[in-house]
Amino acid sequence: MVESLDTAESNFRPLVVIELAKGTKEETIEWLTKRIVDKKANGGAQLLIKPLVTENGVENIYLVGASHLRLLLGAEAVGLVKECSDNSMRSFTYSSRKTFKHFADDNHNFLTMAECQYIIKHELENLRAKNEKMIPGYPQAKLYPGKSIVRRLLTSGILVQIFPLHDREELKKLSHSWYGRVKVGYQPLDNIRCYFGETIALYFGFLEYFTFALIPMAVIGIPYYVFAWEDYDKYVMFATFNLLWSTVILEVWKRICAILTYRWGTLLMKRQFEEPRPGFHGVLGINPVTGREEPVYSSIKRQLRIYLVSLPFVCLCLYFSLYVMMIYFDLEQWALDYHQENESNFSSLMLYVPSIIYAVVIEVMNRIYRYAAEFLTSWENHRLESSYQNHLILKVLVFNFLNCFASLFYIAFVLFDMKLLRQSLATLLITSQILNQFAESLLPYWLQKRYNRRMKKHTCSKKTDMDLSLAEQVTMEKEMGTYLGTFDDYLELFLQFGYVSLFSCVYPLAAVFAVLNNITEIYSDALKMCRVYKRPFAEPTANIGVWQLAFETMSVISVVTNCILIGMSPQVDALFPDSKMDLVLTVALVEHLLLAIKFIMAFVIPDKPRDIQMKLAKLEFESLEALKQQVRAFQMQLHFPLSHH
Amino acid sequence: MVESLDTAESNFRPLVVIELAKGTKEETIEWLTKRIVDKKANGGAQLLIKPLVTENGVENIYLVGASHLRLLLGAEAVGLVKECSDNSMRSFTYSSRKTFKHFADDNHNFLTMAECQYIIKHELENLRAKNEKMIPGYPQAKLYPGKSIVRRLLTSGILVQIFPLHDREELKKLSHSWYGRVKVGYQPLDNIRCYFGETIALYFGFLEYFTFALIPMAVIGIPYYVFAWEDYDKYVMFATFNLLWSTVILEVWKRICAILTYRWGTLLMKRQFEEPRPGFHGVLGINPVTGREEPVYSSIKRQLRIYLVSLPFVCLCLYFSLYVMMIYFDLEQWALDYHQENESNFSSLMLYVPSIIYAVVIEVMNRIYRYAAEFLTSWENHRLESSYQNHLILKVLVFNFLNCFASLFYIAFVLFDMKLLRQSLATLLITSQILNQFAESLLPYWLQKRYNRRMKKHTCSKKTDMDLSLAEQVTMEKEMGTYLGTFDDYLELFLQFGYVSLFSCVYPLAAVFAVLNNITEIYSDALKMCRVYKRPFAEPTANIGVWQLAFETMSVISVVTNCILIGMSPQVDALFPDSKMDLVLTVALVEHLLLAIKFIMAFVIPDKPRDIQMKLAKLEFESLEALKQQVRAFQMQLHFPLSHH
């Protein structure tokens, strides 16, 4: 039975590609392949591996696959959660496989391809050194018992990359239903999840949700532009709606996120123990948690690096950014003077130049700072990938926030110039959106397209994408760019949320632009994922993590800014003709009330819908019952008599 | 081996007392005792039970105990966490019992008496009906499969009470080391925990910690009184220190709480599945989570009761409380007028009368409202005890907050009378402290003492407490009051925290009074626990729950009030001679900065100390490893060969 499941070479399905450096020593390759195919009992990964033979001969590229049985056992090891026949979600185990929906021993589609690739990645990364002191053939690439072999190969440059293969047919189906036709409707999130994994599907889910959530704001915002409403009471209404609405949408997102990730099984997935990230280095020592030998780096040293180097550097950058902003305002003043001196079409065009230059400079500064932040955070030597990511996100967020919004704050609360604020906001928002769309998707797509055309000309074939041989497919995909994660995509949304909410009572049209941008963003991001980049490995996730906090913080800040803006308006001013004091006190009172309502709302709206809560409770109850049953069975075994009165 | 552990009647140790109603039918008693002693396999609790024989004959009082082995198995069932020989904390299981510190088959002190009593309570409460349709002898006391027998007996009045027995010797030791001698030092928290359980020990831990944390404030506050400092810059400094300090102490408490509960094992204890609370009623139906038959009550009906009845009622009470407050201010004004008309010793004494009357009225209103809140919350028919408690706490907190602080807010922010504020604050604080100490401990102690003396006279014995026979001890203890939980004690601390922090820049001496009160509070509460009340059942807990949130909310509110008070002071006023506007804006800016610092501090300070984090990570790692090992072992069993290239 079990043997019959085993895959002969005939139905070897390539899932993951391993590219070794050119000129990698024969003994290294032999050792690595042996470790990969070796039995679990001998410390191997028990996977299948095949060299890729192209027209140019063997190129140090290997295809990794696994038998169906191996993948099922791997699914158990990574803790995959699947749907059972009774519609409940449960951790998959091989012994209970028959209870799962759509499971059949001959149904090789029970696990999606993305899941299979995730399992293989997990197994490869968990291939650990036994007694090897170094990678055979490379004495400088040290190993110690328990060190992940693949990570050492990556850091020592022997392994160029590992990436999962695209499935041309699936991809075509997916891209057709996703962005292939112009239609009004939801994205095929479940299919995206099956193909790209949960992290990416959740990003697209959030993008879609956020766009829908902005529509009410956009709809209410349009008449302000059309009828040129300048009544402040209308602006006040709009801002108040905006503030409460932004709280509601963030709370409701948590519920939708729970629904999605429950359906995908990641809400129930147990957190795996985190291994040190690949770049982590230190003196060999004993990890107090695992008791294993691994590099150890003192937490105090790291704290010193963070507070004595990174923090001052970030502050310096923030100062520099403010300095650049002041230059921008000088330029702006100069342009205004110029316009007033010689009124012409050219001079009125010149009025927009400083803003555009500033927007471009901001983009450039952001990108440079980003490299510095990555370098610094990597130098801080965090042990865990999650801690690395959090420190990186924090650094980048603070800088981006200042860069994008400092000038607007300055205009609003120092210059008190609402007209300039509206104009700057519009310019910044639109410029940055266009730049982003261009730099992020269209440019890489065009480059990729050109490269492919050259490649095809080179191999002088007239085949379409679908007819490519495996070798050609691999050669093409390995040259594609690597998708670096959802960070930049979320950051863009975060800044957009800032533009929309921070000064919403001054420029109600921002929501309209945001909605328009997001609709094209969905298409360009989808294009990027399907056509521009290598397929990324699926990453299970249960929520959007630190971004939820970032968006919530932004919505708290926007309460403050909007209240001040409304208080500063001449119309509201006119309501308190006798005493400015009363005005300020009223504004402060309203602000505190709004903040209190926000916190109470966040507290009262449950994070998970009732039916998900019930399902989770049911699972917890069952596991507790099972435990109790065990205890009871054990007690019965003992079978001891009790005397009683 | 196992049999030798079994307890013969000779070493029956009474742990828990069950008091049945006078005239309970013979068949009911027989059925109940049978169920209690019956084997687990037959659905019994497998405990030991003995009727208490007093001088007056059998009185329907039963003593429950259990064999050592039974208790150990019970400890596993309730998920008790104990310390291992290698100093790590682990869930106790009978099969791994040898690895635990101080475990020996003949060491009957491995489990503390409080733990044994908790286990027995748990086992009794989990004694469930099988096929009984009613309690034998009481056709109106309906049962259904799975219904807790003890809870039905309690709600139908057949079972008067269940309570754990005091251990006279232990109690004497404990009370001696706790409050028996006047000493400077910490309370014996670990001993308190062993005797009274974690919830009560944690309350005393918090009380002690809070008192220590107030000392710096008190020390800084004293010179303000001694030197009659009236400089506002000093008040500003004091208030700023106070605000940051209150954030720090609340964050640090979480860490200390983690240290304590890790040591006590409750931090690691798995949450048990919550059964419906005893008072919960409804139509018999199927619980969607458990699939068991139990009363079902529609959540919508409950929401309607909450929002249409409870909420309006609470609002009405709040309005009434404000109305009473206005009367108080009229009285106050009248007293002032009277004093100004006829200046005499009597009239100056009269000045204090309204405040004192008001404080007394507040206390009375609080107590009446408390009963109403309990009735309403019980009528809302919450399924879970925790949800009942949360709704009750919320109702009581809001009312108490308004009752205690509304008059102060009125004086501060409507009358702008700082002198009156200081005087009212002092009067309210001191009066309520004295009233509380009296009503809570001294009065019950005195009543108890008198009752005991009468009892002893009645049995005309000259024995001391230590020599009491078991029968006499039980008869005495069953008449003692029941401790209703830590709610009132925490509430008192919460209100005290409000007095100290909300107006700290006006009355720095509040902290001094709070410290003095808390020192006596420790003694009077200890006295109350040891001498006045029945021994309560131990309740495992990992934190102070909703009170942490309540204290944090209070500290946020106090930032707002203090900033306003400082802004209103004439000295700060004098700093901005030209523009009141600048003053208000500066105050608002400082307030927002302080709030931001508070939130960042709460975010940056880790909730658990590093070593506890490491220990928890280690445990998590071990359990994940164990799981992996299981998967691996299973894979090896399959032993399938994999072909490779």
Automatic annotation (TrEMBL), chains A, B:
Please provide, alphabetically and separated by semicolons, the GO molecular function terms listed in this UniProt record: chloride channel activity
Anoctamin transmembrane domain location is: 192-618
Instruction: Give membrane topology per the record.
Output: Multi-pass membrane protein
Keyword annotations = Membrane, Transmembrane, Transmembrane helix
Q: What is this protein called?
A: Anoctamin
List the InterPro entries: Anoctamin (IPR007632), Anoctamin_TM (IPR049452)
| Record-stated family | Belongs to the anoctamin family.
Sorted alphabetically, the Gene Ontology cellular component annotations on this record are: plasma membrane
> TM spans, by residue?
200-229, 235-253, 306-329, 349-369, 392-413, 493-516, 583-605
Q: Which Pfam families match?
A: Anoctamin (PF04547)
The main location class comes to membrane
| Compartment(s) where it occurs, according to its Swiss-Prot or TrEMBL record | Membrane
Q: Which gene encodes it?
A: Ano10
User: What domain of life does the UniProt record list for this protein's source?
Assistant: Eukaryota
